[in-house]
Specification:
- By secondary structure, the chain is an alpha+beta fold.
- Helix content is about 35%, strand content about 15%.
- The chain has four helices and two strands.
- It has helices spanning about 25-35, 55-60, 65-75, 100-110; strands at about 1-10, 10-20.
- Strands 1-2 form a two-stranded antiparallel sheet.
- β1 and β2 (about 10-20) form a beta hairpin.
- The termini are far apart.
Length: about 120
């Protein structure tokens, strides 16, 4: 959503577009993951075919590029980090757009196990 905001520049008024950030709720992200079949291979707290989301969050907890790495894996598929079974790509057929994939990645990263 783009909003207009009045900005004062050197005494003159100017109108500029300001992007309004949208943050997806954890509930929305879990529903999106369910609708895309993510839970066929992943679970939040235990390994299935793929790793538990809490394990993914823990592995990438200190990586500043984690969200982008996971977004790429979601969109383009991935193999090797968690074993030989490949994760399919979710972008080629329009399953997820880059914004949805990034929101999912951020949600997964938020699922770090509590100490």
């Amino acid at each position: 959503m783009i909003g207009l905001r009045r900005i004062v520049i050197g005494g003159a008024l100017a109108w500029g577009a300001v992007a309004v950030a949208w943050a997806a709720s954890a509930s929305d992200m879990q529903k999106l993951a369910e609708s895309q079949g993510c839970f066929s291979c992943h679970a939040i707290n235990h390994k299935k075919v793929g790793p538990a989301y809490t394990a993914v969050a823990q592995r990438y907890a200190h990586n500043p590029n984690a969200a982008a790495i996971l977004q790429d894996a979601i969109l383009n598929g991935h193999q090797g980090t968690w074993g030989v079974i490949p994760m399919p790509a979710y972008a080629p057929d329009g399953y997820l757009n880059p914004h949805q994939a990034l929101d999912l990645a951020k949600w997964i990263l938020s699922l770090k196990p509590k100490p």
